[in-house]
Amino acid sequence: MKHGRRTLRRAIRLAAVGGLLCGGLMVTHAVAGEPPPGAGPASGRAASPAGAVAGLVERLGTSRTAGSWIGADGRPVVAVTDDATADEVRRAGARAEVKRHSMSDLRSARRTLEEAPRVPGTAWVMDYASNQVKVYADRSVSAADWNRMSGVTRRAGDAVRMERTAGTFTTRIDGAVPIFNGTGRCSVGFNVTDGTDNFLLTAGHCGPVGTPWFTGTQGGGRLGTTVARTFPGKDFSLVRYEDRGAFDGTNAVAIGEGREVPVVGAADPVVGQQVFRSGSTTGLRSGRVTGLDTTVNYREGTVTGLIATTVCAEPGDSGGPLLAEGLALGVTSGGNGDCTEGGMTFFQPVTSALTALGVRIIDGRPAADRGTASAPSADPAPDAAGGGPPAQAAGPPLVDTGRREVTGIVEPRQLVPGLAVIGVSVVLLLIVRWLLSERADRDHLRAHYSQHWS
Questions:
Q1: pTM (predicted TM-score)
Q2: Among 374, 393, 48, 404, CA closest to 200
Q3: What residues are annotated to the active site?
C-alpha cells in the first residue's frame, strides 16, 4: 500500500514537471516571432499564408469561385457557386460556402463603378464573405453625389451595396519612425535594395520626386531624397539614402518601448488575416484584413489595388509598415476615423511596389541566421516614370544601430493553451506537496523541495 502511494506520488510529480516543460515550450513557441536560423524566406518575397488555397481558387476559375478568406477558426474558406465545386474544395482540405455571385460577377460590378465619374470621399471593397462589392461614402459626400452613386450601384446590380461611413477618407501624411520633409511628416516603411544601393520604401503621397527627407523638424540629419514615386493610381515611393557609410544592412520595425521586429521578406495578405501596423503617431496597432484590390477616391486622386483593414491610423502614420509574422505586407496609404473611435485604413501592397520599383526587401535577421544571400523578389522593372530607381549612394537605416531587443508580435489568445497547461501542472505540483505531507518524514522532504522550488 505504501509502495502504491509512493508510485502514485512519483507519477503525479513526473506529470506535473512534464506539463510545466510542455506548457513552457508552447508559450515560447507562441511568443517567438522570428523564424529559426535557416528557416523562412530565402528571398525578399515569401509565399502567401494561404498559397495552397489561392492555387486551388485559380484552378477552379472565376466562374465557380468568389474569393477566399481566413475564418474565425483560422481555417481557409472558399466561396463557391455550386455544390459540386464545394465538394471539391472540401476534398482539398478547406471549408466551402456556396454564394450567389461568382468572382466574374463581382469584377463586372466593380468595373461599372470604375467607369462612372469619380466621387471624392468614396471607396469600394471586394467583400468575399458577404459576396458583395461594398461601396462606402464618407461624410464629405453630398446628398446629390450620394444619389448619383446610388444610380451607379443600381446599374451594377445586387452584387453592390452602399453604406455611409463616419469621418473622411484622407491620406495620412503629416509613422514606426518619423521622417520630415520641411512641410509635413510621414513614417518609415521598409528598407529595400536593388542589389547595389539601399533605399527606404514609403507612401507615394508623402512627396514628389526630389523631396528631401530629414530625421528632425529643423532640417537636421538629412536622410535622403525621393527618387521614384507613383501617386495617384498607386501609392508608393522610394527614398535613396545619402550616407553610404552608415547603413548596416538591417531591416526592422519599431513597435515601441525600444523593441523591434525583424523583417524577413514580403508577402501578399489574405482576407481575415490578423495584421499589425506601426506608425510614429499611434505606435503599434493590430486588426484584420477585410478586403483586397480596394479602390479609394481621395481628394488628391484615385488609388486602386489597396489592402483594406480594420487597423486604425492617424495623420503622420502615412508610409508606415503593415506586417505579420515578420513579413512585409504594405505601407500605410490612408483611411478614415482615428485610434479612439476606430475606422478603416488602406495600405499599398508591398509586393506590387517592389515589382514596379525593381527592388527587394532587405532581410532583417542577423547575418548568422540568414543562410544564403537573398535574391531579388522580382526582375527589375521600370517605374511609372519610365525608368528604374536611380542608383547612387546608400545611407543609414532609420532604426537605432546600437543594441536591439528583437521581439515577436503575438495574438494573446495564442498564449492561452500553454498557460493553461502550466496552470494545470502547478495544481498537480500542489497535490504532490499535499500528499507528501502525509509522510512521516515530511519535514525532511519539505526542506528538500524548498531548495528546488524556491
A1: 0.71
A2: 393
A3: 205, 235, 318
